[in-house]
């Protein structure tokens, strides 16, 4: 198939949006990275939910949904939220946004006591809250496929109000629909996305595929049926049957053990330790083969 490309000359006053080739390449790379990170939605939700378990047990709403989207514009840190920056080797990797009431309750469960005096969540964050935020960042970074990050060297800093947040992508962890708490948000900088491991797609191991398949087929459950007897009745009697009727049954002198439509064994029925059991008496499957031979 022949493909012909056409080029058009754009006028100087045209309103076409023109992007440099380098910017287009960066967009494609970022899309590929975000697609890879999207595979970790459930592990992220589970990891953060485990850390929120102390207040969830007290009746606080649980996390139920997580999403990952791109950030095309700068975001401003609102003063009514707690904003924390995660820095590593003098570079900002990510920002965590959490409402202050949730942060204060969770930190009190982990590091507080009954003797801790009550205080307003609008105050400056305590050391316990800084420790909690670092713990949240650490649990998330342990799950995501980042490389060359020593989690012990992460530094947490408080972001000033109305500061610009230059992020490339954001995780949003939402509470249950009946909760008024705003979602948790994790903003990821371009520096963090560049640390995602670029591992090639692994081919399935086909060396032992036949042996594994044979072993699996040997474990497939088969339904066996043991016929004890039968009774023939006319159709008019069948239509008159009702609950409570007693039917005579002609028992076989030898019960037949079948799989599907093929008989395998003749068997005799006995009682053993209060249970009904069948003793195999004749291999009918191989017996029929010998007769045919």
Keywords:
four-stranded antiparallel beta sheet; about 290 residues; single chain; elongated; about 30% helix; six-stranded antiparallel beta sheet; alpha+beta
Q: Sum up the overall morphology in one term.
A: elongated
* Quaternary class: single chain
What does the radius of gyration come to? 34 Å
* Biggest sheet character: 6 strands, antiparallel
Q: How helix-rich are the residues, as a percent range? A: 25-40%
What is the mean pLDDT?
81
Query: Strand fraction band?
Result: 25-35%
The ordered string of helix (H) and strand (E) elements is HHHEEEEHHEEEEHHEHEEEH
Give the helix tally: 9
By secondary-structure content and strand pairing, the structural class works out as alpha+beta
Order of strands in the sheet with most strands? 1-7-8-4-3-5
> How many angstroms separate the termini?
62 Å
Number of strands: 12
> Uncertain segments of ≥5 residues (pLDDT<50)?
20-25
Describe, in plain words, how this protein is organized in 3D.
With 293 residues, the protein is an alpha+beta fold. It has helices spanning 21-37, 41-51, 53-56, 100-111, 127-143, 190-193, 209-218, 235-239, 284-292; strands spanning 63-70, 75-76, 81-88, 91-99, 155-158, 164-165, 169-175, 184-188, 225-230, 250-259, 262-272, 275-283. Helix content is 30%, strand content 28%.
Topology of helices and strands:
Elements: H1 21-37, H2 41-51, H3 53-56, E1 63-70, E2 75-76, E3 81-88, E4 91-99, H4 100-111, H5 127-143, E5 155-158, E6 164-165, E7 169-175, E8 184-188, H6 190-193, H7 209-218, E9 225-230, H8 235-239, E10 250-259, E11 262-272, E12 275-283, H9 284-292
Antiparallel strand pairs: 1-7, 2-6, 3-4, 3-5, 4-8, 7-8, 9-10, 10-11, 11-12
């Amino acid at each position: 198939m022949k493909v012909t490309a056409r080029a058009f000359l754009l006028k100087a006053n045209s309103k076409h949006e023109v992007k440099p080739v380098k910017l287009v390449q960066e967009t494609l790379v970022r899309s590929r990275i975000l697609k890879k990170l999207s595979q970790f939605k459930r592990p992220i939700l589970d990891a953060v939910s485990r850390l929120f378990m102390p207040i969830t047990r007290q009746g606080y709403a649980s996390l139920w949904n997580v999403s990952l989207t791109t950030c095309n514009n700068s975001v401003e840190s609102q003063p009514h939220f707690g904003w924390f920056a995660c820095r590593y080797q003098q570079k900002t990797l990510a920002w965590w946004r959490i409402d202050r009431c949730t942060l204060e309750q969770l930190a009190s469960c982990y590091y507080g006591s009954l003797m801790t005096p009550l205080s307003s969540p609008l105050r400056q964050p305590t050391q316990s809250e800084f420790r909690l935020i670092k713990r949240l960042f650490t649990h998330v970074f342990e799950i995501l496929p980042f490389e060359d990050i020593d989690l012990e060297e992460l530094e947490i800093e408080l972001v000033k109000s109305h500061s610009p947040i230059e992020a490339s992508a954001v995780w949003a962890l939402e509470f249950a629909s009946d909760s008024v708490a705003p979602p948790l948000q994790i903003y990821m900088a371009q520096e963090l996305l560049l640390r995602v491991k670029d591992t090639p797609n692994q081919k399935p191991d086909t060396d032992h595929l036949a042996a594994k398949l044979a072993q699996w087929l040997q474990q497939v459950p088969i339904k066996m049926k043991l016929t004890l007897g039968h009774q023939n009745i006319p159709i008019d009697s069948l239509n008159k049957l009702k609950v409570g009727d007693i039917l005579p049954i002609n028992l076989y002198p030898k019960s037949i053990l079948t799989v599907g439509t093929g008989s395998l064994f003749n068997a005799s029925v006995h009682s053993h330790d209060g249970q009904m059991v069948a003793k195999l008496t004749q291999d009918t499957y191989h017996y029929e083969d010998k007769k045919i031979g």
